[in-house]
Amino acid sequence: MSPWITPARFAAIAGAAAVAAVPLVAVPAQAATSVSQDRLTPSSMTAGVAATASLTVHSSSCFTARTLGVGVRDASGANLDFPGSRSNVRICPGAVSLTTGSRTLPAGSYAEFGFWQDTRGGWHNLPSRTLTVAPAAATGPSTPTGTPTPTPTPTPTPSAPSSTPPASTPASPVPGTSLAWSDEFNSPIAWGSRWVGSTSSAFQYGNHNPNDNKLDWLDPNAVQVANGVATFTAAPSAHTLENGKQAWTTGQLTTEGSTEGFQVRTGDYAEARVQLPTGSGAWPALWTWKNGNGEIDSFEYHPDNPNLLELTNHVNAAHDYYTDAKAVGPGDWVTIGTYYGAKSVDWYVNGTKVYSDGTGVGADWSAYLNLSLSVSAGQYHPGPSGTAPITFAADYLRVYR
């Protein structure tokens, strides 16, 4: 959710879902180093069947790549990369190998390629090959399974989520912590005292931020509470952004600038139960921010990568693309938590630890909480497919310390 910066390949770093067709960037300091792609698999998959990718590369001389991963691009140019790229990889003439996380793809023909990122942020795509995804096998002579049907964009109800979240009991998976702060969304948003929804220092223009590939135009009225749930609604706006694109009014809750001014700090565990959106262009996130830095993304989500959550530490660079088809999907209620450890930030999904970054936030870190529904401008993920409103819901946001 970093402002003013063209997002990295995988929108937070933050996926096909955060990954786009990024032009090659020439970096003088590494211009003399060439990287060769020795092996890339798979060459074929079956629609709906999860598979991992493997990549082996070597270089003309040893250097450290900030990121190494496997990209996938469909016929329209949309990126559907395999999750689980590696950070800070030492690449030498002796070769290095990577096995990604798993993902599924619809039937079709794709371009598959290795990619790496240099230390100055430049992205480099290696030679591509064709990845063929065959239709799923028929289950019987008269009932073919066919190609998976994409999840349709529903007609949302702005005032309430599409389903009721399951009952919850305040408890933390981190031993020794107890509830210190929460919003259960059982009453109207406490604008001004607890939350601010009209401006953020993370947005270049205060209430909008086009240079971060967003169509957002913040409006407190875009967050409404009913039946114990806060619903964020994004809809086309009459405003025009500086880049000429039509803005979408949308909602964000931030503790920054509120009278209470609550901040999470080293040793805290923050958790939210949210309903992931289904609409194309949706970009929800739970994240932290302070003084142009301090960003930890508890999650970012894009429906075009339906089973993937982006988990990112921008304080001491680390990230993971967590995939779970059983727990993560459009319309699903999922509980996502983050422990802000001094030496390691830990991420939890439905109470189970899924990633520890080993870098942490340091002993004296603190930052404001943000829960938001952004709208993608289409550079790294598909933008809105029409003018129908997009919704995202939250059952609660809690902090334990």
From TrEMBL:
Task: Give the top-rank taxon of the lineage listed in the UniProt record for this protein.
Answer: Bacteria
The alphabetical list of record keywords is: Signal
Residue ranges under compositional bias (Low complexity)?
Answer: 135-146, 169-178
Concerning InterPro entries, the annotation shows:
Beta-glucanase-like (IPR000757), ConA-like_dom_sf (IPR013320), Glycosyl_Hydrlase_16 (IPR050546)
Residue ranges, annotated region (Disordered): 135-179
Ranges of residues in domain GH16: 167-401
Is-annotated flag, keyword Methyltransferase? no
Q: Which family does it belong to?
A: Belongs to the glycosyl hydrolase 16 family.
The name under which this protein is listed is GH16 domain-containing protein
Q: What is the lineage of its organism?
A: Bacteria, Bacillati, Actinomycetota, Actinomycetes, Kitasatosporales
